[in-house]
Design goal:
335 residues, alpha/beta, four-stranded parallel beta sheet, two-stranded antiparallel sheet, 39% helix
Amino acid sequence: MARFRDFDLFRGQITPARLLQQTRVHKGDMTQKHFGFSQQDFFMLGSRVHTIYSLGVSVSLLKTYSDLRDIDVGRMKDLVELAAMGTKPSAIVHLSTFSVPQIQSWHQVQRHDRHRVIKTPVSARSYVPSTDDDNGYAKVRWVGERVLEEAASRGFPVTILRGSAMTRSIATGVPEPRCGIVQQGIMGMLLSGTVPDVPGYVADFVPIDHLAKWIYALAEQPHATTITEARFYHVTNPSPLPIVDIRGIDSGTTKTIPLKEWFELMEQSTAHGSGDLVRWAGIRAFFETGHVYWGLETASTERVMARLGINMRECPPVTMDFLTELWGDWPSRDA
């Protein structure tokens, strides 16, 4: 209830009384098997649920695959088990990340086609990250998708949505907490008037109210009678901004510098908030793999959304005006 008030979500027909009447909270723990539920409670919940929205994940660019596996892969397996408890499999709607297809840019990645980067919303089976324990976050997200794909091949209705960085709701204007990794990188560029020499890097943000509308619309589509594979969609901004078009807040200009030099500058001059240095260390480790935040293809998802009566182009494009508004909130946000 407090979080709804913090983010100004009690609007229109959504009132505290209605929220209490129409929702039931099951207090679980993502670090525990079956989310900490007893076997009986786990079975009762699974036998009654029709659609499972998988939106929670442990995020850290510094943790290893072993550190994150139990939470981000183990709980994915629990979700499939939960979906199997009813008389027919429950639908699973999973919010994944644009970082999964971006694994294709890593130095140590196995790709079936070395000459083509796949940007369309399809399975990630054609590329495999390195099997070492480092850089666990993107790896557990890749494995999570593959777990759900295996469930889909066995008849589970699975929808996988790959999103970019989320920002404040356009409707409420309440800023998100100052903990976004993608946001911190872009804010560092605005503050310093410099960008790293990383071809293809874009600023890709989607306001949370637009993302929520997209997720719900895509999740509500009926599945085929016979299910053999997961459905994939890209719910990123259709109009991201190449970082070469970013201008410094104070200077009004941009200087492109080598990636290593840029990180040194960021850590020395832009780490002003609580947790900033840790996040910069994580971002540096992530980019040392060869990772690039390049834009995903959204045209096929846009066509599906158009049939559902939603124009994804109504999402504000990422422009300097858009980034300047984000910057206005950034220094004062809680870490």
